[in-house]
Amino acid sequence: MVSKQPLIRRIVIAFVLMTVVVSGIFSVSIVATVHFVEGHLVPLELDGELDNVLAPENQGVLRPRLDGRTQLYATGHGAAFAIPPLFANVETGYSEVTDGDHAYYVMRRTVDGQDYILVQEQHEFEEREVLLYKIVLSGFVLSVLAAWGLGLMLARRVMAPVIRLANQVRHRDQLHPLAPALAPDYPDDEVGRLAASFDGTLGQLRGTLEREQLFTSDVSHELRTPLMIISTSCELLTVSNNLNARQQEQVQRIRRASEDMRDLVETFLILARRKTDKQVPGGEATLIGVAQEQIQQWAPAIEEKGLKLSLIEEAPDDGQYNLSFLRTVISNLLRNAMHYTDQGEIRLITGKHGFRVEDSGIGIPEELHESVFQPFVRVNQQRGEGLGLGLSLVKRVCAHQGWQVSVHDGEAGGTVFEVKLA
């Protein structure tokens, strides 16, 4: 699993962990050395002292030369050398004896039937041992703190170019055609190569965006003229008295289709320009008004397929919404429902700040509920006449307007698309 910690923190943690391991091993080694000295060198020292005491030249000396913390006891040498009860039962050789808060190193040897015991207090050695342990612990803590400070300083210094590059990318409009390149500000190292790669990618992205903006602008400009001609011609045909009712209905369908095309052109142009202002051209309308209009427009095609189309108003909604965007969303959802429904009905249900489009079609597998809003994704490649862009457009429009669109299975089968407008 990749760590989500910031790089600076990870570098500092690495420094501290390395120091903990190295200092820990060093400290443990010191403690082990102290225990080795206590367990091996002290017996050797006492054994050497006892050899000196029992040397021939010291025989008959009442008090051999010993330091103040070492005492000699022996049998057969009078009361002054009598063995205290505390050491009377110690085994031959080296041993340690404790008496409350006191501890002693003891070396016992038997020579010519006489027992000799050399006793040395541990008090001084323990004081030095405790002092050494305190020094080791203090050194361990100080080394960890020093590693943290040094690691933080080095991490900030190492990461400074990366942070600078990130701030340049975040706070400058890098997609602007006149934005300066980033690579010249950095040496030819890893960060410099990263900045150069970023410049190259941005160059490709700028070119792509420029081509897209030119394309959408050209399409919008070129389509407006024929759409205006179609709309004007429909108006002229409508006011003429030479058309029967059936022909007048067809002319109205052509007029509404041209209006839808004009709305789609504006929608594509706005989305391509990535405007964030929700108050875009197209006018405003109520939800029920647009729903009634779309029902009237799609009713002939849906009923011609043998399906029932109905509009249900569950609750009134007096909100005002962008006419072009709302038309686009409802129209694409009704078209999608018609394409994937063979029998039954399609219902457009409006409510307070939202609506649903329910159908009795083939449904959408649950694993495709999220991906169905992606471009070129179709539930069934053998059905419908589209390219899988309608629901993607719905998702983009809703995201632009701050609306929410979701899909789930209907209670009696089919699919339900729900749009929340607030």
Task: Please characterize this protein's 3D structure.
It is found in: Membrane. One of its GO terms (cellular component) is plasma membrane. Keywords: Kinase, Membrane, Phosphoprotein, Transferase, Transmembrane, Transmembrane helix, Two-component regulatory system. 53% of the residues lie in helices and 15% in strands. It is an alpha+beta fold. The chain has 3 domains: 7-145, no CATH class; 190-272, Helix Hairpins; 282-420, Histidine kinase-like ATPase, C-terminal domain (Heat Shock Protein 90, 2-Layer Sandwich), CATH 3.30.565.10. Helix 3 runs antiparallel to helix 4, helix 4 crosses helix 6 and helix 6 (323-339) packs antiparallel against helix 7 (390-401). The chain is elongated, with a radius of gyration of 46 Å. The mean pLDDT is 81.
Gist?
The chain has 422 residues and is α+β, with helices and mostly antiparallel strands. The chain has helices at 7-53, 123-171, 190-239, 245-273, 287-304, 323-339, 390-401; strands at residues 70-74, 93-99, 102-111, 114-121, 284-285, 308-313, 321-322, 345-351, 354-359, 404-409, 415-420.
Number of strands: 11
**Widest sheet: strand order?**
6-8-9-11-10
User: Helix share of residues?
Assistant: 40-55%
Average pLDDT rating: 81
Task: Name the beta content range.
Answer: 15-25%
Uncertain residue segments: none
Structural class: alpha+beta
Largest sheet, in brief, is: 5 strands, mixed
The domain count comes to: 3
N-to-C CA distance = 38 Å
Spell the H/E element sequence: HEEEEHHHEHEEHEEHEE
Radius of gyration: 46 Å
General form? elongated
